[in-house]
Specification:
heterodimer, A: about 575 residues, alpha+beta, Phosphatase 2c, domain 1, Heat Shock Protein 90, five-stranded antiparallel β-sheet, 21 helices, B: about 100 residues, Transcription Regulator spoIIAA, globular
Chain lengths: ~575, ~100
Amino acid sequence: MHEDLTFSFLNKAVKGTALVVDDTRINRLLLGKILGDIGYQVVHAENGEEAVEVFKQQPVDIVFMDILMPVMDGYQATTEIKKLCGSKFVPVLFVTAQNEVDALVKCIASGGDDILFKPVHQAVLKAKALGFERTKAIYNEISRLHNQLQEEEELAERVFSSAVANSYCADRELLVSLNSASTFSGDVVLAEYRPNGDIHLLLGDFTGHGLRAAIGAMPVADIFRGMTRKGYTADAILRQINKRLHRLLPTGMFMAGTFVEASLQQKSLTVWNGGMPELLIYNTQQQAMRERLLSESLPLGIQTTVELNLKTIPWLPNDHIVLLSDGVTEAVNVEGEMFGEQRLEAAFNSRSGQPSFIACIQQQLERFCNGAEQLDDISMVEIPDLLNRPNAEAASTFAGSNQPRGKWRWQLCLDVNSLQQFTPIPLLMTTLQELSVHQTDRNILFTIVSELFNNAFEHGVLGLESSIKTSAEGFEEYYRQRKRRAKQLSEGWVNITIDFDGQASRQFTIEVSDSGKGFDLSKTTTNDPAQQYSGRGLKLVESLCESLDVLDKGTKVSVIYRCQH
Amino acid sequence: MSISSQLNQDLGQLIICITGRFDYSLHRDFRACYENISVEGVQLILDLSAADYMDSSALGMMLLLKEHAEKSQALALTIRKPSPAILKILEIANFDKLLKIEN
């Protein structure tokens, strides 16, 4: 029973091409016969050099190699063949009558995988061949997984970078240096303007590095951007990030970080430090480190609520605010020595000729590490002397000053074919961005124009009744009808006109008209709950605008929206 | 860098001792020290007197140990004798507010 089980393994067929290398014809024939019997296709070579040639010319799956041969011996041939294999696994088995320790060690040292002793026993040879097929399968699987992992990591990296990549705020105002230890950085730098022009800056450092550390960065980026643009303060944003990370990350993973809220108007800095090295403020007039802000809070994501201990200090002209991850002082050189705080401190005092403090630290760091392998992510951010910038005043009223001052009109007339093919809203949003309309205003305008356009198209041109949408099934039915009618549409148009007056009134006048039959305004303002649900769009627009007028029997809506920025 | 643990039933103590660098490479061994041991009513001690460096994943591992201690109703978790360098890392992360540290 036991024997049956053992030998049934040998019933499995081997396949592929075996290369037999031996200078004695009879040996080649003998081995070739056995190999042929167990299922191999056999090719021969008379010496090492010939073997290498054969190997170059045709695919070979396994090599049986003699040791002593004229022209080129088995060791050298094995080394050459292994070089040619690249990432492919082709086992080389030495076949020898020698049983000397030196020779055997040399077989493996030259790159060989195993040794067979003469006389070769068929069952042993087959068992070895099958064993190597197993190894080969594992090898191929590993190399496939490795490639797949690399591909996925690259893809994830692209998604990650576009989600977390620096905004134009960081490009314009800040100096950033990121060096990651692997494809992914466990460090994240985020910067964004609040609607009033304050700069929010976050340098976060997740536990560990690589992909596992980067996962948390995406929700952090979303919360940070979204809330900053809406005008939230550091306190609210950090609490929200903490809450989200606590829910999302497993125990043992968290984000240390430094957050700066820099207000050009108030000339103040509000700083949070949770588990990061000191935030340093170097003042070039005092020629000294003016302030060191120590970590006074737990990192985020550890507990449900966190005591932030935010600090607000005045922001002085000539201040250079430097945020560093612990990868800087902990960078190790070839001797295993750390960069340390003293060298960091010294770097601040030797800035001459360097465009920024972080460039200077970077240079000192490179000189120190001198090519030693980087073990952790190294991130540095500097807020330069923005208060002394010639256009500091302009920047402090950033939101307003960047607004277009002139007048413009944007008009789009869509005929039936265009309506079937084209949604005008994204085009409009791009245009508004090009015209420097502030993000907050853009977001509101997006809602207003989308609602008005959808009303004009769906109710006006397509003649859909919004009252269908009063139930969930009706909602679906509505969108089915919308699709069908849009497809069958043979006539109709929608015109959108936007006028901006950037001088006196700073307001947008938006008119949307359509080819429909119009509607009875009194119906949309009814208190009938069934109607309220469907009439929601216009109500929403009304609440966002200064004024809303329905004209031309309901075929035209005109609204006025005043800039908030 | 190595890790060893000793469960003393009489004293009711599980002592985990780290030597050298305390970082991610110890992850598995560290968990193995406590995962399959009943620590109910046991005093957990993480002895760092022989550890000379610690990174943020070590902080994470401490949180895992803390969570395990709480879940399995261990008596207490104490971090024993961290070197000045490690104590500084613990303080920067404000872990001194979270864990009992004993010199």
